[in-house]
Amino acid sequence: MSLTVRIPTTLRSLTAGESKVEITGVTVKDALDNLEVAYPGFSERILEDDGSLRRFVNIFLADDDIRFLQGLDTPITPGSTLSIVPAVAGG
User: pTM of the predicted model, to two decimals?
Assistant: First the structure.
């Protein structure tokens, strides 16, 4: 299924400056795997070595944080929007 992935400014160097890319996938994990194939370098920045989502990276499917759905196994419906949002911290 095709979906739009919104790319944060900090990762746009991987997509030649594109803020949105079209990717396919049945689950969020599938979409992220396909994002890595199309634009190498994403996995190391958003996933841990064991394949889990990094602590300070949030992913939203539409307006829902996937951590409160089925995580990386969350199914994707056609035409969905996936947003990668790095957490912002400071002090």
Answer: 0.91
Angle at 31 between CA 50 and CA 11, to 5 degrees: 80
**Domains, the chain, with CATH or none:** 2-86 (3.10.20.30)
What does DSSP assign to residue 44? H
Cβ atoms of 20 and 4 within 8 Å: the answer is yes
Question: Please, what is the end-to-end C-alpha distance for the chain in angstroms?
Answer: 41
In tens digits, the chain (91 residues) has pLDDT values of 899 999 999 999 999 999 999 999 999 999 999 999 999 999 999 999 999 999 999 999 999 999 999 999 999 998 999 999 988 766 6
